[in-house]
Amino acid sequence: MAQQLINIGTSANDGTGDSLRSAFDKANDNFNELYAAGAAGSNLDLTDNDIGVKTADANGGIRLVPNGTGTVSVQDDSLTIASARTIASQVGVPGDVTGMIAWDANYVYVCTADYDGVANIWKRAALAW
Hints:
Layout: H1 20-37, E1 44-47, E2 50-53, E3 101-103, E4 107-111, E5 122-126
Antiparallel strand pairs: 1-2, 3-4, 4-5
């Protein structure tokens, strides 16, 4: 539904604007559409402290993309990123792109090129404590 503007007339009480009933009907329709879409639109689900993807793509991801030269920052003293990625081959898999990072108990892996099915694109560094 497109946004419904309330006609307020050309001057106060001139009788050319929407009636009260019509105006509030439009206001209700506008608010109902916003509430149905959720706080971040229809593609994201904000529940408790989780942000989830609500698309037909079962493996859809979330990208934080700043405007122009802006940055994405986390204002806290720690950031935890859980890695479920396992690197079975240095060649990688479809979807691997330059800059990806993964880790396991022994190594940190960095993807150095976009996946092409042939080239070794993952490099690893041993974790040493």
